[in-house]
Inverse folding.
């Protein structure tokens, strides 16, 4: 009798589960009087006056890069550590630029920078916890914002940025530089030309052993964040570029996600080795894996691993009905043999596909250049650098669009969709990999724009 009863209870629970569907998170109603900011254009700025907040490893380099971007004045610098402001002032002087207004000394010094009338764009490179407070304050004070990745770490933060961008009708861009790497740019172009047929599945990752870096972060913020947060806390390098290929919120949308993580094996050792508190309480698993399904029936696999000695890998794979692109460990394209001219079947490797790599890949990428990558921009980007040039291409595009009053390549909805993976994956993990609904941050407008494209001045 007891066994029958427990079977009955189990059946009821199963029925309840299947009726419930994916776990849902709250979608706050759009505040009255607000409309979406899809395709947002703002008045063209002849010169863009930039203020930087956060001048550590990333922000310090950004200041130097911006001295090479046409149409920029660096008007303000802020870091809680005064010496970092001084270092960036020296970099400006070294490049022959006038000193910028300096703000420093405490965690709220950024407010003065945001209030500074000589700033149009606030470029935020702080630790993750300070991104959103700075961005909200800046937009409230009439500034466009560009925020390092991940720009927001919780759903609440994602919605706050969406609402603020809609309220103020200012740009709020995620600084996802990996969308501008050379392979990704060409592969996106090929996908848009239809070379891969329909791209049905994509993969992205951030696998980067951070052992040599943990101690370099200000106030130990990164290890601390990983200790306190479960989920894929750094999803956007792998996710952003493939979302552009899949036209997310430009005809398709992220629908449901499931995620699992390993136990935290190595994280606690880093905490213990530094004599920090509660090493046994470490929320972030060494390897996190998330799968997302889109409304149009595509899938995306995302991985995060900063804890194991594994070769650097952002995965970047596009799986299409007629072709494939993969970047790591070596760049490859793959097409059906009959689609290629002059190919022959490789009987030794039992392959009926034509694989393109090495010099042939370079030539192929050259034939399918991204429209944003002029030879002049490529040469300058490689000279200035920043992850091989992709950082500079991102900076250049941001300023180009602001100077020409064009929609930016990445809008606030991209930011929210790419960053929400952090908390949503944690929710799924907390429920043993249960499906979680991805909120529609456009609140019903995900088909308004048809396909991802770059804007150009006429
Ligand atoms: N896109 C990329 O490839 C890439 C690469 C590295 C880092 N990042 C991102 O850049 C950001 C910064 O990383 P980092 O490596 O430079 O870290 P970092 O620790 O070297 O620098 C962070 C800086 O922010 C400052 N700061 C913190 N709170 C502040 C506040 N309230 N006001 C003013 N300054 C404040 C700190 O003093 C520090 O100088 C992070 O979001 C990180 O994820 C992105």
């Amino acid at each position: 009798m007891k066994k029958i009863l427990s079977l009955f209870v189990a059946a009821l629970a199963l029925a309840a589960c299947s009726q419930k569907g994916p776990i849902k998170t709250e979608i706050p109603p759009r505040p009255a009087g607000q409309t979406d900011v899809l395709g947002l254009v703002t008045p063209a700025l002849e010169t863009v006056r930039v203020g930087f907040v956060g001048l550590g490893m990333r922000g310090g380099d950004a200041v130097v890069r911006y001295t090479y971007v046409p149409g920029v004045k660096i008007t303000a610098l802020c870091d809680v550590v005064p010496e970092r402001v001084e270092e960036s002032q020296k970099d400006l002087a070294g490049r022959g630029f006038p000193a910028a207004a300096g703000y420093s000394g405490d965690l709220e010094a950024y407010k003065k920078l945001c209030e500074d009338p000589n700033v149009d764009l606030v470029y935020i490179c702080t630790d993750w916890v300070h991104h959103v407070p700075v961005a909200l304050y800046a937009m409230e004070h009439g500034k466009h914002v560009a925020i390092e990745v991940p720009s927001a770490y919780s759903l609440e933060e994602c919605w706050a940025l969406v609402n603020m961008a809609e309220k103020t009708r200012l740009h709020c861009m995620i600084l996802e530089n990996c969308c501008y790497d050379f392979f990704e740019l060409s592969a996106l172009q090929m996908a848009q030309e239809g070379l891969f047929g329909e791209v049905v599945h994509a993969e992205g990752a951030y696998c980067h052993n951070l052992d040599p870096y943990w101690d370099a972060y200000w106030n130990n913020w990164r290890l601390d964040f990983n200790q306190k947060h479960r989920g894929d806390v750094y999803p956007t390098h792998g996710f952003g570029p493939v979302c552009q290929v899949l036209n997310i919120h430009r005809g398709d949308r992220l629908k449901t996600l499931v995620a699992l993580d390993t136990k935290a094996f190595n994280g606690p050792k880093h905490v213990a080795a530094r004599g920090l508190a509660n090493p046994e309480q470490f929320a972030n698993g060494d390897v996190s894996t998330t799968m997302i399904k889109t409304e149009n029936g595509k899938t995306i696999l995302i991985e995060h691993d900063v804890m194991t000695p594994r070769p650097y890998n952002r995965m970047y794979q596009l799986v299409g009905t007629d072709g494939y692109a993969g970047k790591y460990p070596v760049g490859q394209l793959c097409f059906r043999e009959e689609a290629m001219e002059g190919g022959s079947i490789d009987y030794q490797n039992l392959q009926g596909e034509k694989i393109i790599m090495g010099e042939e890949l370079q030539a192929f990428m050259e034939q399918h250049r991204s429209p944003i990558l002029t030879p002049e921009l490529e040469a300058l980007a490689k000279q200035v650098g920043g992850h091989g040039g992709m950082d500079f291409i991102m900076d250049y595009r941001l300023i180009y669009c602001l100077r020409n009053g064009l929609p930016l390549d990445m809008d606030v909805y991209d930011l929210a969709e790419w960053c929400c993976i952090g908390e949503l994956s944690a929710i799924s993990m907390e429920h043993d990999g249960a499906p979680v609904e991805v909120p529609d941050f456009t609140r019903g407008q995900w088909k308004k724009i048809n396909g991802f494209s770059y804007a150009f001045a006429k």
Observations:
- The longest strand covers residues 199-207.
- The pocket of nicotinamide-adenine-dinucleotide is lined by residues 53-59, 78-81, 84, 107, 110, 125-128, 130, 148-149, 177, 217-218, 221, 387 (CB under 6 Å).
- The chain is about 35% helix and 15% strand.
- Confidence is low (pLDDT under 50) at residues 1-17.
